[in-house]
Amino acid sequence: MTDAILTARHLTKQFTTRGDGAFIAGTSTFTAVDDVSFEVPRGRTLGIVGESGSGKSTTARIVAKLIDATSGTLEFDGVDVTQARGRALAAFRSNVQVVFQDPFSSLNPRHTVEKIITAPLDYQGISPAGGKRALVRELLERVGLNPDHAQRYPAQFSGGQAQRIGIARALAVSPKLVICDEAVSALDVSVQAKVINLLNSLQAELGLSYVFIAHDLAVVRQIADTVAVMSRGRIVEQGDRDAIFERPQHDYTKALLAAVPKIDPEWELRRARMLAEEGAGA
Questions:
Q1: I need a labelling partner for 9 at 20 to 30 A (CA). Which of 113, 155, 242, 277 fits?
Q2: ABC transporter domain location, by residue (predicted)?
Q3: How far, in Å, CA of 55 to CA of 59, rounded?
Q4: How far is CA 127 from CA 120, 133, 175, 246, in A?
Q5: In percent, how much of the chain has pLDDT > 70?
Q6: In angstroms, rounded to a whole number, what is the distance separating the alpha carbons of residues 55 and 72?
Q7: Geometric angle at alpha carbon 279, from 273 and 282, rounded to 5°
Q8: Which 3 state secondary structure label does DSSP give 98?
Q9: What whole-number distance in Å separates Cα of residue 167 and Cα of residue 162?
Q10: Out of 75-79, 100-104, 225-229, least confident range
């Protein structure tokens, strides 16, 4: 039996829309997530992949308990958190953090890096040993940023650096699970590789589990251990990463893989080595 940090069973999310009364009367229901089940192995990465509108980001929001599922259950570290409220919800959120797609949209432009990173600590009422300032310096160094830049503002950083700040913020409360919702899609390819290398090294160092949401199969292959493929709100195929990529069973998965540009193998090997060297020094 798999040692799962998170188990989702039959998650469904429906949204109700109301007509304006002039051209559209009454209400209608849209099912964004439809009977979705999966596990996130402890210390490993589940990649959820699909096109825009497939329901993957809504699934991420349910897993992070930013929104409630219409039906289904969510179990975290052996505890049912489906209906968690109050202290139980606060405890869950200290263990589950999110890294969002656009780092600049998710970082308050009026706050210094130090204030951004310590915000989860303030929300949880946590006073780290050694003080918040020391923790901020440690986290900035851990994600490859200059600790002396803690008093700077988000606009003073590049996109890749801003996303590292978002990762540092997620790590501030020592979570067990980090949800990366299209966390590298807004970055250049070379920067994507460095951030993925950072996430991989943090996982090895801290024993983190990830739910990694993406539309880019090439990115998913670099980080995921298991993969769930979503289409129209449903998981159409899931399993071991190599099995999904080398022996896809569902026509939708095959179509996604067929859309990935084919690259000369020798050139790709040289590129992979170059990015690995860059990542080691990032």
A1: 242
A2: 17-257
A3: 6
A4: 11, 11, 15, 48
A5: 89
A6: 15
A7: 150
A8: strand
A9: 9
A10: 100-104
- b/e map 14-49, b = 16+ CB within 10 Å: eeeeeeeeeeeeeeeeeebbbebebbbebbbbbbbb
What domain range includes position 269?
Answer: 4-19+27-280
Q: What is the DSSP string of 37-83?
A: EEEEETTSEEEEE--TTSSHHHHHHHHTTSS--SEEEEEETTEE-TT
User: Per the structure, how many domains does the chain have?
Assistant: 1
Task: Please give the helix or strand (H or E) that residue 115 lies within, else none.
Answer: helix 113-124
Report CA-CA distances (Å) from 114 to 126, 154, 165, 170, 233: 15, 11, 9, 13, 38
Does an H or E element contain 209, and which?
Answer: strand 209-214
CB atoms within 10 A of CB 78: 9
Q: For the segment 249-263, what is each residue's pLDDT rounded down to a tens digit? A: 999 999 888 877 654
Give CA–CA dist 75/166, Å, rounded. 26
Read off the pLDDT of each residue in 39-44 and give the average, rounded to a whole number. 96
What is the Cα gyration radius of the chain? 20
Cα distances from 87 to residues 81, 90, 93, 124, 188, in angstroms, run 11, 5, 10, 10, 40
Q: Tell me: pLDDT of 198 over 90.
A: yes
3-state secondary structure of 238: strand
Return the CATH number at 59: 3.40.50.300
The pLDDT score that the predictor gives to residue 1 is 44
**Euclidean distance between CA atoms 208 and 9, whole angstroms:** 22
Mean pLDDT of the chain: 89
* CA–CA distance, 72 with 8 (Å, rounded to integer): 8
CA distances from 136 to 64, 78, 128, 164 (A): 24, 31, 10, 12
Distance CA 275, CA 277 (A): 5
Between the alpha carbon of residue 119 and those of residues 3, 125, 249, 262, 275, the distances in Å are: 31, 10, 44, 43, 33
